[in-house]
């Protein structure tokens, strides 16, 4: 019975953790874009985003990560033989990358707070896709285990990355064109 409790709360932790990671970097994007606003809006927005980032990271994202890891350890104590399986080693490698991403977000948050972040909003949009790729890989490994069709999976993940990159580029182009149209509509004095 302990296995099912650990698994249930592991899944809850994953959902909370990823929700936090997805929204956190989205806040970073808005935080960086606030620099394009005139004062006093710039300062108001940056202060608000900073507060939201800190709360999201501390109250949702980090607890979600801790629950996920704690419940994973619980799962492993109920089934220690799974540690000998190759799929789990690959999955754990992705989890380590995800933990690194989580902590890198904290670093970016501190840089934004000090106005030292060098990332553009477009670069942050690309960074925001990293947990999606890791989530897909982790879920596929957890579901298929050693029967994962690696050829199809590699191509699917590669296709997903290309699609995400294209979407980010198209969105950036759309924003640039919208901004140019807006500037062209402003009456010249």
TrEMBL record:
Membrane topology: Multi-pass membrane protein
Cofactor(s) recorded in Swiss-Prot or TrEMBL: heme b
Pathway where this protein functions: Porphyrin-containing compound metabolism; protoporphyrin-IX biosynthesis; protoporphyrin-IX from protoporphyrinogen-IX: step 1/1
GO molecular function ontology, one term from the record: metal ion binding
Residues that coordinate or bind heme: 10, 91
Transmembrane segments: 6-25, 56-76, 88-105, 126-146, 152-172
Reaction equation(s) it catalyzes: protoporphyrinogen IX + 3 A = protoporphyrin IX + 3 AH2
The UniProt record lists the keyword Oxidoreductase: yes
UniProt remark on cofactor binding: Binds 1 heme b (iron(II)-protoporphyrin IX) group per subunit.
Superkingdom, taxonomy of origin: Bacteria
GO BP term, example: protoporphyrinogen IX biosynthetic process
Subcellular location: Cell membrane
Enzyme Commission number(s): 1.3.99.-
An annotated GO cellular component: plasma membrane
Keywords: Cell membrane, Heme, Iron, Membrane, Metal-binding, Oxidoreductase, Transmembrane, Transmembrane helix
Record's subunit section: Homodimer.
HAMAP family, per the entry: HemJ (MF_02239)
Function: Catalyzes the oxidation of protoporphyrinogen IX to protoporphyrin IX.
Family assignment from sequence similarity: Belongs to the HemJ family.
Protein's name according to its UniProt entry: Protoporphyrinogen IX oxidase
Organism of derivation: Scytonema millei VB511283
Lineage summary: Bacteria, Bacillati, Cyanobacteriota, Cyanophyceae, Nostocales
């Amino acid at each position: 019975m302990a296995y099912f409790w650990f698994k249930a709360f592991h899944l809850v932790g994953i959902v909370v953790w990823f929700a936090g990671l997805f929204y956190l970097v989205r806040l970073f994007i808005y935080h960086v874009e606030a620099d394009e606003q005139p004062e006093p809006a710039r300062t108001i927005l940056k202060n608000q985003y900073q507060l939201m980032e800190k709360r999201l990271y501390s109250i949702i994202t980090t607890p979600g990560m801790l629950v996920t890891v704690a419940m994973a350890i619980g799962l492993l104590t109920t089934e220690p033989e799974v540690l000998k399986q190759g799929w789990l080693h690959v999955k754990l490698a992705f989890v380590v990358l995800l933990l690194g991403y989580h902590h890198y977000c904290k670093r970016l948050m501190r840089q934004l707070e000090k106005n030292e972040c060098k990332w553009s909003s477009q670069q942050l949009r690309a960074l925001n896709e990293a947990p999606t790729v890791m989530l897909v890989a982790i879920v596929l490994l957890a579901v298929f285990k050693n029967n994962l069709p690696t050829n199809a999976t590699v191509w699917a993940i590669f296709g997903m990355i290309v699609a995400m990159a294209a979407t980010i580029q198209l969105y950036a182009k759309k924003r640039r064109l919208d901004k140019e149209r807006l500037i062209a509509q402003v009456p010249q004095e």
